[in-house]
Amino acid sequence: MSSMIASDYIEQVRKNGYVLIKRAIDPSIAQNLLDFATSFEYSDVERDALLKNQQRLNGYGNNIFNIALKRPDILPLFIRDVQGEIMKGLLNDRYYSSIPADLPNYIMRAMLLRSSLGAMPYHIDSFIPYQGDHTSVVQSAIFLNNSTIENGCTLLVPRSHLKGEYAPQGDNPDAIALEAEMGDIAIWDSRIWHATLENTAKTDRWALIGTFARWYIKQAFDYPRAISDQMYESLAVDEKIVYGYCSYTPLNEFEKTELKTGIDNIKRPSNSVKSLLPPDSFLFS
Ligand SMILES: O=C(O)CCC(=O)C(=O)O
User: Residues 261-279: what's their mean pLDDT?
Assistant: First the structure.
């Protein structure tokens, strides 16, 4: 990795909307993830179910969803060390005082493995275009193959995150092709106009893409309920926060009334309204 420090990378994301960190991941970790990507297969039944409710943009790649639950060892790659400092710098809410500032208070929206097929159209992943320095959603792509113009690399329009507009469709003369090598990481503000090229080489171009968001933004899956008891027990505090255990939506006021819970009160969410109620509650009647 280069000698740049987290604050330099944060500065680049704020200014240009993205940064590429060379050789950020140990090659053996990248190889292990690549082996996972190339050996994983959904069953036919699972694939049919996934195709029935596929979002438009997911049709342009091979996708393996929900990696965080398939590989519980992976989240620390995104939230510790320099990566973690960058995420905190871009996404921590400075007014979230019940979590100490050296921990994350942002959450994970999604984590998927994707390999490019067709040319993915320009889009933003913050869903809301707006101007200003306040970043709400960040994507971090760990490249597991070399990512090239031939095999469908990312296209980005530098500084477009500050335009406050949805991404125009069609070719964009201001776009750059973000070529990268196995083990590099690209981090971008999800307001940036981005797309991919078509994979004309028809070779694998796997990237592990983590999407992280401020604590009040909806997660792609209900991680606090979906995570097994066994996985929950193995998580460190920073992982529990990022999976949403401090900021999930409670079932009712007897579960909690705080939107931002502190680390002293991390617990699994309830699945049963009744178990939360005092026995004489009017909600029973
Ligand atoms: O695979 C890429 O380079 C970009 C993927 C992308 O745009 C996305 O997942 O939203």
Answer: 82
